[in-house]
Design goal:
Blueprint (H helix, E strand, L loop, with lengths): L8 E6 L6 H8 L4 H7 L5 H20 L8 E3 L5 E3 L5 E6 L3 E7 L3 E7 L8 H4 L2 H8 L4 H19 L18 E4 L2 E7 L3 E7 L5 E4 L2 H12 L1
Parallel strand pairs: 1-10
Antiparallel strand pairs: 1-5, 2-3, 4-5, 6-9, 7-8, 8-9
Helix pairs in contact: 2-3, 3-7, 5-6
Length: 224
């Protein structure tokens, strides 16, 4: 179990393989019925799986904090979800290759993206001139673009007010994996297939990465 002093933390799960029927049944034991119904609205199984898996990580994270009753969730004016009866802040993100959930005692935004290989059509409207130069000169322009994109998205999700300014004005020129910017703290992790960025009001975000069966085994043991 964790305490609130262990936050912020981001739980990460690779989803490069579809969930098996056995895994889905195990997950559904921990997820509210309304979330299960929401997951069934997606046209593609991978999107339904991501919906369930990301919410499962939220449940997992709360249980690690000894919170067994899911707090009520509402959405802010611009769609950012929050708990109405808990001081815990959370944010969820998913892509084809991974899902994640961040938990904190203060505001947090997370974004995970598959590595973007074709960005020529959007680089001009999403990146500043200096960011474009940074991307073009990188050893792997695709990874550099994806990193910057997730940083911008995590910042927008942290704020929760919706993007009102030109996203090019949110400029990241720092290439380190942990840094401060605009009174926020940023952390970046990546694999060969995706990048994840976290924007938090607090320093020292921890990343926890396990297989789905490992996450499930922990909760099922805790049930007994």
């Amino acid at each position: 179990m964790l305490s609130t002093n262990d936050l912020p933390v981001v739980y990460l799960l690779d989803t490069d393989q579809p969930l098996t029927s056995s895994q889905l049944e195990r997950i559904k034991k921990f997820i509210p019925s309304d979330r299960i119904l929401s997951s069934q609205k997606f046209l593609f199984k991978k999107d339904s799986d991501a919906c369930l898996a990301s919410f499962f990580l939220l449940v997992y994270g709360l249980r690690m904090l000894n919170i067994y009753e899911l707090p009520q969730i509402k959405k802010g004016e611009n769609g950012k979800p929050f708990f109405t009866n808990s001081n815990i802040c959370f944010n969820i993100s998913h892509c084809d290759k991974a899902v994640c959930c961040g938990l904190s005692m203060h505001n947090i935004g997370v974004d995970v993206q598959d590595t973007v290989t074709g960005f020529d059509d959007i680089i001009g409207c999403t990146m500043s001139d200096r960011e474009i130069e940074l991307i073009r000169s990188a050893d792997s322009p695709s990874e550099a673009f994806t990193r910057l994109w997730t940083l911008k998205e995590s910042f927008v999700k942290f704020d929760g007010s919706g993007l009102t300014d030109d996203i090019r004005t949110i400029e990241f020129l720092n290439t380190e994996n942990e840094f401060a910017y605009r009174n926020c703290f940023f952390n970046v992790e990546h694999t060969s297939e995706y990048h994840i960025s976290v924007c938090s009001a607090d320093k020292g975000t921890r990343f926890v990465r396990k297989s789905l069966n490992e996450y499930l085994d922990e909760l099922e043991i805790d049930e007994h």
